[in-house]
Amino acid sequence: MIDPQLPLVDIHRHLDGNIRPETIWDLATRHNIALPAKDLDELRPLCQIQDKTADLLAFLSRLDYGISVLADTDACYRIAYENMQDAKRAGLDYVELRFSPFYMAQSHQLNIADVVEATIAGCADGSRDFAIKHNLIGILSRTFGTDACTRELNGLLARKDHITALDLAGDELGYPAPLFTEHFKQARDAGWQITVHAGEADGPQSIWNAIELLGASRIGHCVAAKDDDRLLEYLVEHNIGVESCPTSNYQTATVVDTANHPMKGFLEAGVEVTLNTDDPGVSAIDIGDEYQVARDVIQLSDEQLRQIQINGVNQSFISATEKQQLF
Ligand code: ADE
Ligand code: ZN
Predict the structure, then answer these.
(1) What is the pLDDT of residue 230?
(2) Which E.C. number(s) belong to this protein (predicted)?
(3) Residue 169's beta-bridge partner residues?
(4) Would you state the pLDDT for residue 1?
(5) Maximum Cα–Cα distance across the chain
(6) What residue ranges line ligand 1, CB within 6 angstroms?
(7) Per the structure, how many domains does the chain have?
(8) pLDDT tens, 82-93?
């Protein structure tokens, strides 16, 4: 299913959507933070989704438990470090971890730049200790509005050499891409690559906007491209990568059932589709589960699965030499 001869990567994985329930419980205990559960067993079903939720916003609210225990920058360092260990345990050779420092800072009013600093340090130490290659993608959480995103962008730009790309995540319907053109111009001027969550909660125009207004070279989810043939052709022609996350798409009610996930059609149209986890801690899955779903439920062939592993490397935000080194 996963070809061990090929590199395994996950390029759409939220660090702040992958906080271990044990860590949430431990941090809450240490910092005396109230959780709506009397023990870890009661907490698990709250912070891990077993079936689908009503919509994207209902899904995203499940990330709040983990965020609520980030009482200081040591906690941010810890979850970053543990994310690298989790990535190694999942069998990944390379991971792009994304994080929203404004969101992480928000519950306990931490300084955004300090959160960025602690996250970079936790990932760097984890990368060294667990021998796994990584890069960091900064997120602007659109849900908090444009001013919050300006502060978030500034916190990320303060360590711009440690960040590879900028993403826009959160409430796609409520906060469309045209609000953020200036933020993304600054990001491109800083030399960052661009990936944007689009076509998850909104339609094909949101994907066009991500590409044409924000400069995205990869699209997170991109499910709505199934409704726009011209867009599919454009994705192929311009080698724009699609970051598919099928379990997440089911849980956010973006797709009605996983069997009809459009990624198979995208692959057959020649789109460079990649396979990823999104929020593995919250979805209670990891990359191996997604390959299993892709084979057994979405019915991808072994050849298509191998192509997806190669696409993941091709679309990674690393140099051609670094890509070669993964093989
Ligand atoms: N943040 C974490 N997961 C997300 C998703 N699936 N869509 C938008 N924002 C997110
Ligand atoms: Zn995502």
Answers:
(1) 98
(2) 3.5.4.4
(3) 141
(4) 86
(5) 54
(6) 14, 17, 56, 60, 169-170, 197, 200, 248, 252, 278-279
(7) 1
(8) 999 999 999 999
Determine the structural domain holding residue 300 and report its residue range: 9-316
Q: Is 200 a catalytic residue?
A: yes
The span from the CA of 144 to the CA of 9, in Å, is: 30
The residue from 82, 200, 272, 290 that is catalytic is 200
Length of the chain: 327
Q: How far is the CA of 270 from the centre of ligand 2 (A)?
A: 23
**Within-domain flag for 163:** yes
187 is a domain residue = yes
- Chain-centre distance for alpha carbon 232: 22
Please return the burial class of 297, using the count of CB atoms within 10 Å of its CB with bins 0-12, 13-18 and 19+. Answer: middle
Cβ-based neighbour number of residue 88 at 10 Å:
18
Q: How far is CA 245 from CA 14, 109, 113, 130, in A?
A: 12, 31, 29, 25
Which residues does 133 contact at the CB level (< 8 Å), separation at least 6?
93, 94, 95, 127, 322, 326
The parts of the chain modelled with pLDDT lower than 50 are none
How high is the pLDDT of residue 314? 98
**What ipTM does this complex have?**
0.99
* CA-based nearest residue to 94, from 121, 134, 131: 134
Q: Is position 309 within any domain?
A: yes
CA distance 38 to 260: 39
**CA–CA gap between residue 294 and residue 275 (Å, rounded):** 9
Which stretches does DSSP call E strand in 172-267? Answer: 193-198, 218-221, 241-244
SS3 for 172? Answer: coil
